[in-house]
Amino acid sequence: MAAASDGTPPEVVSITIDTVEEGWFAGIWVVATDADTGGSGVARIDVALDGRPLDVEVRSQDAQTAEGFAFFEDAGPAGEHEVCAAAWDGAGNSQDACTTFEVLEGVGPVVLDLRVSATTLELGEPFRVDAVLDDRPTGRSFVGGGRVLIDGTEVAPLQTGYEGHFEFEDVVEDVWAELPGLDSHGEHTLCLEGYDIPGHVSAEQACVVLDVPAPPAPDTEAPRVTSLRVETETEVAIPGERMIVIAEVDDSATGGSRVASATALVYLPGADPADAIRIPLQTYRFDDVVESVWADTYVPDPLIDEFTLCVVASDELGNAPLMPVADACLLVPVARRSAEGSGRLESRALGSNSDATFSFEVTDVAGAEHGVGELRYADGWIQFEATSVAVVDITGSDAVLMAGTGLLRGAIECTYVFSATERHHQGRDVAHAGIDLDCPGLSGVAALGLRTLPERSLKSGDVDVRGA
Question: Cβ distance 188 to 182 under 8 Å?
């Protein structure tokens, strides 16, 4: 019982309030003391929030000091609020004190560490999304849940849980959702947002772009020839010479089917395109959308100045071009089979020791090879015309052989065999020509040495004639 002589009220020493956001609960701690000599002690503590009385629980009390706790479920809207506390002693004396505090504006949890099992998906492919919802930076209320939105539409709630525990009851929660898949091609935006128990929604969503690629268009195009080259032993191709065709064909940009075959087509001047020479191209194995192909073959033998070589390819679906495209063709020049020059003639068979000139050329007459030539010297000349022409390879040297008839000094008819060969000797190309004559009253051999011929093409050179 309070002493009747006690006239000094107790003192409110402190008022402490939790940080609180609108719509959320908090507690108020009040400490009061009655320290005067002969005081009756703290008997009761009253607390009011914005003038509204709250229930107070006195949690500790001795002869002079008491601590009270008041709880409220909703502090009210964001902004400044007032808490007042009054302490009473046993004699009925009281004293009050007030303080203000700030109620924070309600903001939902922050979405952290957004993860998706895959961002590129097949149509209808299930996937999973994981994240963390954290309400500590925005008021410390408990996380209440969250949702998944795709292209702005909610598609699933977020779940939490581990080891059989599946309730939202903390300020930080690991969340996840398993989704059945997307039902349309193209890019889609997936976003997550959370909310706390008071219902405040995340200020910002966390988003990621998902892609469901459209299916490839049906493959209706043939593979493309992306590179083509022709390699020959000489800079200018020689009929019958070895020729290597190298190309790369690619179906990746035209449907993605595997390359099944490739062919080189040789078009001769003036010939019907349908009669093109077909040369199969090979690779180690046709099993990819890009293939390097080649053929080890020979320069066409017909007498021509050039020919066109094209490459076509087909894929495993049978797509093949009707005609080669210009980018898949090359114009290949071919050396003419001819020679000319001058030199010194010393020939007992021809009875001459003088300067001489020499020329020959193989031409095309009515689709057949035709050879003509002439040897002129101081005492006469021989004009010859071939009835047969051949180009052969003799121990690695190109050779032109002609046989036929000729006129010595324009009057004496002779038969002859003419040869012109070319070989590499002591670091340079050397050409040699010879005529084996059989004329009435005259027979023998005139040897013609052509000292140099460019590109091993039997085109031109100097004549150094040594006769038998």
Answer: yes
Tokens 């290949």 label which residue? 332
DSSP state letter for 457: S
pLDDT at position 43: 84
Which three-class secondary structure state does DSSP give residue 1? coil
For the cut 60, the answer to whether the pLDDT of residue 392 exceeds it is no
What lies within 8 Å, CB to CB, of 143 at 6+ separation is: 109, 133, 134, 135, 160, 168, 170, 171, 172, 173, 194, 195, 196, 197
For residue 141, how many other CB atoms are within 10 A of its CB?
A: 26
188 beta partners: 210
Show the CA angle centred on residue 247, arms to residues 245 and 253, nearest 5°: 160
What kind and span of H or E run contains 208? Answer: strand 206-212
Give the CA angle between residues 404, 406, 411 to the nearest 5°: 155
Residue 346's pLDDT is 62
Query: 108 exposed, middle or buried (CB, 10 Å; 0-12, 13-18, 19+)?
Result: buried
**Cα–Cα distance, 67 to 88 (Å, whole number):** 12
pTM strictly above 0.85:
no
CA 119 to chain centre: 18
What is the residue-wise DSSP string for 131-183? EEEE-GGGT-PPEEEEEEEETTEEEEE-EE-BTTB----SSEEEEEEEE---S
218 in helix, strand or coil? Answer: coil
Q: Report the relative pairing of strands 65-72 and 26-33 from DSSP bridges.
A: antiparallel
Structure tokens of 42?
């703290």
Report which of 161, 164, 162, 157 is spatially closest to residue 195, judged by C-alpha positions.
Answer: 157
Q: 425 CB contacts (<8 Å, ≥6 apart)? A: none
